[in-house]
């Protein structure tokens, strides 16, 4: 039996209660000290580091509001739309809960996109944080699945037809596509069976996976330590430490950053509340106007597009036409020629490069462009998982890289946002051309990173954190 800690009889009631709890559940105290009061984080965190804690906040908002919505929602094709209207009109404060949940979905993606961009510019995915990044990308993937399954539940026109279009994309996969689409729908069309299985995944299965991934993400981060804007390792063997072994360039997460993050939380909640009370539809971007019309399987909307956080990838899908496939063929051929002509491969490696290029060209020319669109859309997310091994820069942070590296990142962000806008708009020849150019840039940014990330004159990284109050 564990030895109980004694406490002074003159201690306050709060101290006695804390001691009583700690004697009976010491693991909680150990984990609190490990991940909060004795977890030392770099002292130069800036506003970019708000978004990790904000993602946790939005996750809690979505879970809590989702529980209350589930109390009144009916996952039945005949009743789903009416139950949402009942929540909005008759349930006390139901409109607020529904708008918090719908706005929270968009807020979740905004926060996660910014959090991932912070990791990209400061090199937070670099060794030894590869697993932290992989867990984060898996969270992003699960978040997309969660949003997709939840998108059908209001059973409005855009929900119904958006789900119909996205599920039908899986049928483009050779051999298994039609059966896979049938399995996802549970029927030959989007129907009551689809709604029930989407509801199950949205409410139970994926949230459980998400919570587990978030815990793994945080634990793996705290095991290797947080990165910082300078990319300096504050806990390494050569990093300066005090007599107790704590890094001199770090401060305890609590109370310093728990209070620091409250600034971001307050600003976020003000913006979040303003949207909920004054513009919950956000001009049709957060809640599409067609989704206030009940789903009608006999009336197709003029323009079907997913909600805004999917549209960059949807643009890439639409941009993959037969012309785009021909461009891919040229790129593969040029890559093979470059590998043979300028590459440092041996004879066997050069032969393998030519054979692989030939196989890729044959597949590109013989499989439907719709299938390659699905591959491009999925590959745009999957390629993020390989970022720790694609980046060969000698420094982590963008602060110490050549200035033109920042320009490449800036173009990447602008193109990604334009792709998102183009995905919302109806297709047009000019829009398709722009989307094709930006899709090539998106993949070129990552696939050529082993080459361009090593180029240029890099600044000297300081031995210690550069920080001024």
Descriptive notes:
The chain is an all-alpha fold and 469 residues long. It starts with 12 loop residues before the first helix and ends in a 17-residue tail after the last helix. It is 64% helix and 1% strand. A two-stranded antiparallel sheet has the order 1-2.
Topology at a glance:
Elements: H1 13-24, H2 26-37, E1 40-42, H3 50-72, H4 80-89, H5 94-122, H6 130-151, H7 157-169, H8 177-185, H9 192-224, E2 250-252, H10 253-278, H11 311-319, H12 322-341, H13 347-366, H14 369-382, H15 387-390, H16 403-424, H17 429-447, H18 449-452
Antiparallel strand pairs: 1-2
Helix pairs in contact: 1-2, 3-5, 3-10, 4-5, 5-6, 5-10, 6-9, 11-14, 11-16, 11-17, 12-13, 16-17
Structural class: mainly alpha
| Count of alpha and pi helical runs | 18
The mean pLDDT is 92
Rg (C-alpha, Å): 26 Å
Which shape, going by the Cα principal axes? globular
Count of distinct strands: 2
| Element pattern in H and E | HHEHHHHHHHEHHHHHHHHH
Beta content: under 5%
Strand order of the largest sheet: 1-2
The low-confidence parts are none
Main pleated sheet: 2 strands, antiparallel
Instruction: Give the N-to-C terminal Cα separation.
Output: 49 Å
Helicity, as a percent range: 55-70%
